[in-house]
Specification:
The chain has ten helices and no strands. With 179 residues, it is mainly alpha-helical. The longest helix is centred in the C-terminal third of the chain and has 17 residues. The radius of gyration is 21 Å and the shape is elongated. The relative contact order is 0.09. The structure holds iron/sulfur cluster (SF4).
Length: 179
């Protein structure tokens, strides 16, 4: 009798304290079926054999550089952890992978820039208003800045027209009309 044991990165994942629970997965697929991202994008999306939230935890262990984007493709809503029959803290691990990937320097520069811009935008109501106003101006006057073939979203979807006013401006205007 020949007994073949395939490690396939399991020992390494076992050594990662924050991620070792992912090895309890029984591959039932519940986390993928409940995930608001994978429900829309389908099981074969995101270039990994094991798809769904659990795949996004297992894949960076095998090749962190290649799969650096996967833990970021999540809303961190926690629905996956909620349905998991073996109680894996999936969304916590996705969040932890993001921290490891940024620390190891595998996060894309565009993502880092986007996050820094968003941190500035959300740091004060004045910044939020300024960013909204600038964004609306670009969408109305030079939509090519966003709607161009270099934008992967635009290649596959109709982009919405820029709104004329922010929701806050609309609300103040309509609230005053009521009185
Ligand atoms: S719900 Fe849990 S057991 Fe099922 S595939 Fe996802 S991680 Fe694995």
């Amino acid at each position: 009798m020949h007994l073949i044991l395939v490690d396939a990165g399991r020992t390494r994942q076992l050594g990662r304290k924050d991620f070792r629970d992912s090895l309890k997965c029984i591959k039932c697929g519940s986390c993928m079926n409940t995930c608001p991202v994978y429900r829309k994008s389908g099981g074969l999306s995101y270039h990994n054999t094991i798809s769904g939230p659990i795949g996004a935890i297992l894949a960076p262990n095998l090749d962190m550089k290649r799969h650096a984007d996967l833990p970021f493709a999540s809303t961190l809503c926690g629905s996956c952890s909620n349905v998991c029959p073996v109680k894996i803290n999936i969304h916590d691990q996705l969040y932890k992978w993001r921290q490891v990937i940024v620390k190891e320097g595998y996060a894309a520069n565009t993502k880092m820039l986007g996050m820094k811009t968003m941190a500035w935008t959300l740091s004060s109501p004045a910044n939020f208003r300024k960013a909204g106003k600038t964004g609306r101006w670009f969408l109305q006057n030079i939509p090519f800045v966003v709607n161009n073939p270099f934008n992967p979203w635009y290649r596959q979807r109709d982009m919405p027209e820029g709104p004329k006013e922010s929701f806050a401006e609309w609300f103040v205007k309509n609230e005053n009309k009521k009185q």
